[in-house]
Amino acid sequence: MSDYCDSAPGHTFHGPYHEHEYGFPISDESELFERLVLEINQAGLSWLTVLKKRAAFRQAFDNFDVDLIAAYGDEQRQRLLNDAGIIRNRLKINAVIHNAQVVRDMRDSHGGFSTWLEAHHPRTHAEWVKLFKRTFRFTGPEIVNEFLMSAGYLPGAHRDDCPVQKRILAARPAWTRDG
């Protein structure tokens, strides 16, 4: 992401994400789920498109409340497919609803999404991809990589000479605790 460290600072959408979110550890379920949803919706599109639609995603998906999304039925699916503010892709919408059900169930199996991630950490990128493909829908190698980098489970979000990297290291993301 070395290009991102050069181009994002000062940009209306990329700047705040680069400076305050990308690569910092996340443990809050709604924040983790939001990041996963955004990465899934970015597939085939630019990250800028997703960032511009982020507020609309939050509104359309009830602020990424996993319980509400997990309970979505046909009426909510149709509402989402008709919402011009978000990316209206049936496969992605269905994946979000399914994945919310999976995350909700992780509370019983692992205590939550973040504890599920911690229970499987550390892993190589390839191992993470296999795990995500078994667990979630619409999670290919690039989506898994970006999600895990953005949430602090894999390194690479920032260059070592990027000023943000020092703040990330101070926050002790999971990838700094690998061994």
TrEMBL record:
<dbReference type="InterPro" id="IPR005019">
    <property type="entry name" value="Adenine_glyco"/>
</dbReference>
<dbReference type="Pfam" id="PF03352">
    <property type="entry name" value="Adenine_glyco"/>
</dbReference>
<dbReference type="InterPro" id="IPR011257">
    <property type="entry name" value="DNA_glycosylase"/>
</dbReference>
<keyword id="KW-0479">Metal-binding</keyword>
<feature type="binding site">
    <location>
        <position position="18"/>
    </location>
    <ligand>
        <name>Zn(2+)</name>
    </ligand>
</feature>
<keyword id="KW-0862">Zinc</keyword>
<dbReference type="GO" id="GO:0046872">
    <property type="term" value="F:metal ion binding"/>
</dbReference>
<dbReference type="GO" id="GO:0008725">
    <property type="term" value="F:DNA-3-methyladenine glycosylase activity"/>
</dbReference>
<dbReference type="InterPro" id="IPR052891">
    <property type="entry name" value="DNA-3mA_glycosylase"/>
</dbReference>
<feature type="binding site">
    <location>
        <position position="158"/>
    </location>
    <ligand>
        <name>Zn(2+)</name>
    </ligand>
</feature>
<protein>
    <recommendedName>
        <fullName>DNA-3-methyladenine glycosylase</fullName>
    </recommendedName>
</protein>
<feature type="binding site">
    <location>
        <position position="162"/>
    </location>
    <ligand>
        <name>Zn(2+)</name>
    </ligand>
</feature>
<dbReference type="GO" id="GO:0006284">
    <property type="term" value="P:base-excision repair"/>
</dbReference>
